Known about the structure:
Helix 1 (about 15-30) crosses helix 4 (about 125-139).
Amino acid sequence: MSKVAIVYWSGTGNTEAMADAVAEGVTGKGGEAEIIQCSDFSAGKLGDYDAIAFGCPAMGSEELEDTEFQPMWDDVKGELGDKPVALFGSYEWADGEWMENWKADADEAGVNVVDTLICYDAPDDEGVANCRALGEKLA
C-alpha cells in the first residue's frame, strides 16, 4: 500500500477541494492519503511517503504563493529524488502559465513529475474526476 502526502496551499478553497479529491483517488485505489497544509511540511518528512502531490493555485502574475508555499517548495524540491510527484492547482485568469513554470522548475531540480493538473476556478465534476484519477496514479 502506498502512502501519499498531499501537500497544498489554498486561498479560496479551490485547491483544497482539489486536494480532497486527490486523496479520494488515493484511498479509492487502496493507498493511504495524508492531506497536509504546506506550512506543516518540510524535507524532513519526505521519507514518510512513497509519493507526493503538491497543490498550489496561480498567484499574482502566474506564480506560486510566495509566503508559505514557495519557501516549502524550495526546501523540498532538491530532496525528492526519484519519488513520484504530481503538481496540481487552480487558476482564475490567464492560461495556466504558472503550472508550466512550476513544472519547468521541478524538471530543473530533477523532480520525478509523473503528472500535472490544473482546474479553472473551483473544480467541476470533470475536474474532481481528474483529481481522483491523479490520486489513483500516485497510489
